[in-house]
Amino acid sequence: MEGFQVMGGEKIKGEAKAQRAKNAVLPILAAALLADGDTVIRQCPDIRDAHAMAEILQKLGCACVYADGEMRISSQGLKNWVMPDDLSKQIRSSIFLLGPILGRLRRATVTYPGGCEIGLRPIDLHLKGLKALGVKILEEGGVIRCDGGSMRAGDVYFDYPSVGATENVIMAAALLPGLTTVHNAAREPEIVDLQDFINAMGGRVRGAGTQVIEIEGVNALRGCVYTPIPDRIAAGTLLCAAAVTGGEICLRGVHPWDLIPVCDKLREMGCRIHEEKEKIALWAPRRLKAFSRLQTQPHPGFPTDMQAQMLAVSCVAEGTSVIVENVFENRLSHVADLCRMGADIRVNGCTAVVQGVEKLNGAKVAARDLRGGAALVLAALAAQGETLVERAALIDRGYDHLERTLSFLGARILRVKLL
Ligand code: EPZ
Questions:
Q1: Is 163's C-beta closer than 6 angstroms to any atom of ligand 1?
Q2: Are residues 280 and 300 in the same domain?
Q3: Which domain holds residue 11?
Q4: For residue 110, what are the CA distances in angstroms to 58, 97, 378?
Q5: Cα separation values, 294 from 309, 314, 338, Å
Q6: 93 Cβ inside 6 Å of ligand 1
Q7: What is the pLDDT of residues 193-242, one digit of tens each?
Q8: What's the structural domain count of the chain?
Q9: From the CB of 328, is ligand 1 less than 6 Å away?
Q10: Residue 115 clears pLDDT 80, i.e. is over it
């Protein structure tokens, strides 16, 4: 097992380029199955979830090679419609493969991906969307057998704007003759990126980013070369690193318009932020002020994937901050470890009330989920003394060598092997 050893107290200072988006790359990897040719994903982040997804594609009969920062997928060989059980449990995003496998092979068998640290992660909306397209679904013993023999374009309505369910339906409908319309679709930027990728393969998807998405099925999709959007969450995490250490950072290769809620909160805390087309510069005050209230919501609300990081930053801000996690039912597990570092946080249900303290103290803590782990690293940067953040592998799921980037920006952070 590996961990991050951090000696706190150094200001984050300098320039960095944001990685490309994990939550765009994962559905794009799945959508590559729809093409009967080769696809190259450029600037593919070197993260565990992307490699896990590539492994599943290989098990399904595709060739998938990661080299020189590019993921190359050849999906001509797709023949296996049964998702490997062990792998679909290893990465929840494997559920995104349902749509494209049905789109290409008109049948699919997957096992329930199961919950994770942040919640039960049900897939009822995924299944509802596919049933609306005529997919017959048999669920027994944790296995989901899908028969797409009579699939047809149609109208899909989501009771909740689920990101994954929206993406699954878009991919299932891309090769389905006729017009499929998704109502109350999720509006995240990663869905717009999936639309752009499918259209680059010759698809006809429109409306992503709004609540109504239309997919006009085409006969075939071809491979393409594609660069995913910047990772707004990884970028937001680096902005928080500068904010929590009283530093300054210039982030390049970012989309400021995808970070509006995050920059709004950091400005409320006293940070000065300058935005240009593909750049965000942030200067932090000596001491941050608490934001009054932060509540996570589907896009364009405040992103749940930035909640843990902002909660960590609020621990050393002057005043009281209230954080409400509305999207996942168990996404405050980082609070316990932040309290071990001296934070003053009270949790009641999905609400955390943080009384800012002058200083946190280094401690031995452990990541429990991807973004909670990143939040602990942020707290460690600001803490007095040494912190050991165990389970670096959880953080590596979504961050491309986070310790290298932070170290380059002045942090004293090492990746260490633990017994
Ligand atoms: C995507 O997960 C992201 N993952 C998550 O990022 C992100 O937190 C989430 O969207 C919300 O923005 C990827 O894109 C790979 P949802 P997803 O379906 O698709 C409930 C990270 O840290 N729901 O929008 O699973 C669900 O329980 C990860 O990078 C149902 O009830 O999110 C949750 O409460 C974490 N039934 C809410 O909707 C369903 O069928 C949001 O889930 C599906 C979801």
A1: yes
A2: yes
A3: 2-19+230-417
A4: 16, 9, 37
A5: 12, 11, 18
A6: yes
A7: 999 999 999 999 999 999 999 999 999 999 999 999 999 999 999 999 99
A8: 2
A9: yes
A10: no
